[in-house]
Specification:
Blueprint lengths: L1 E10 L8 E16 L4 E3 L13 H9 L6 E7 L9 H16 L6 H12 L5 H6 L2 E7 L2 E7 L6 E5 L6 H6 L7 H19 L3 H8 L6 H4 L5 H11 L4 E4 L6 E4 L5 H10 L5 E5 L7 E3 L1
Parallel strand pairs: 3-4
Antiparallel strand pairs: 1-2, 1-11, 2-4, 2-5, 5-6, 7-9, 7-10, 8-9
Length: 289
């Protein structure tokens, strides 16, 4: 029996738009079953998710290796769909590794990151899903550069609203361009954040995570709870609060001892979504036999 496990991801981390990502402890698991006459995907993820070769996982696998022999596969996932935790990226990564295993392609993780980025269009989610931990990436002229680092041992609390937000809709809210000076300032914040994370400079990590100039302000109308949770986090001494990916999930980096208090106070404000305490996944894509 072969099982492919892919972690969820939290992208951007504030100012690292389309380039920074973090693997977290929610997972998609795919078990490869026997060969069959046609592709069959066993899952309990909802009727809207195809159970045949139209499934995104199978489509991705066939895109990489069109001649694959059909198999039965079983998929389990506790990653919420369209919530800013990389659910589509995990499906892409699982599909690529399915093709890698069945087709005996021998692709390493670096090659998988390249393939996944070509499909997804940007590496912020797929790179940490494959490599694990904290990853800074660039996708320029069709080439991906991804650098894996160690994210500090900090508590992560995800607030997952009870509504979906399509990435396409969230991207429509973004400005079409930035003034040169603003773009330089935005880039410098992201650069300093990466350096602070990689050197363990915790005192600077929090303020830099909340200093984004690329996307969060433009998306506030879609995710008003970001500002609510950030203000609450400041009162409780949270290190930082940021929009996870395109949203609507918001990630709070906070001391374990303050988690219960933040949840209680957030609920008193009418925030009725789900709170999930997460850890950094250090491994990324894993194949278990």
């Amino acid at each position: 029996m072969t099982v492919i496990r892919v972690p969820a991801t939290s992208a951007n981390l504030g100012p690292g738009f389309d380039s920074l990502g973090l693997a977290v402890s929610l997972y998609l698991e795919l078990e490869i079953g026997p060969a069959s006459d046609s592709w069959l995907v066993h899952h309990q993820l909802g009727k809207e998710i195809p159970a045949d070769e139209e499934n995104m996982i199978i489509q991705t696998a066939l895109r990489l290796a069109p001649q694959l022999v059909p198999h039965e596969v079983s998929v389990k996932s506790n990653i919420p769909l369209a919530r800013g935790l990389g659910s589509s990226s995990t499906a892409i990564v699982a599909g690529l590794e399915l093709a890698n295993q069945l087709g005996r392609l021998g692709l390493n993780k670096k090659e998988l990151v390249q393939k996944a980025t070509e499909i997804e269009g940007h590496p912020d989610n797929v790179a940490p899903a494959i490599l694990g931990d904290f990853v800074a990436s660039a996708y320029v002229n069709g080439h991906v550069t991804s650098v894996k680092g160690e994210f500090p041992e900090l508590a992560l609390l995800a607030y997952i609203p009870d509504y979906e937000l399509a990435t396409s809709k969230s991207r429509e809210a973004l400005p079409k361009s930035l003034a040169f000076g603003e773009a330089v300032a935005a880039g410098s914040v992201g650069n300093a954040l990466v350096a602070s994370i990689l050197t363990g400079n915790i005192e600077e990590v929090g303020p830099l995570m909340e200093a984004d100039r690329y996307h969060e302000q433009a998306r506030l109308q879609l995710v008003p709870h970001l500002e609510q949770l950030r203000n609450l986090g400041h009162k409780l001494g949270a290190l930082a609060t940021y929009l996870s990916g395109a949203g609507p999930t918001v990630m709070v980096v906070i001391d374990d001892k303050q988690v219960a208090s933040l949840i209680k106070q957030a609920k008193s404000l009418g925030l009725s979504g789900k709170f999930e305490q997460l850890k950094v996944d250090r491994q990324g894509l894993v194949v278990m036999r």
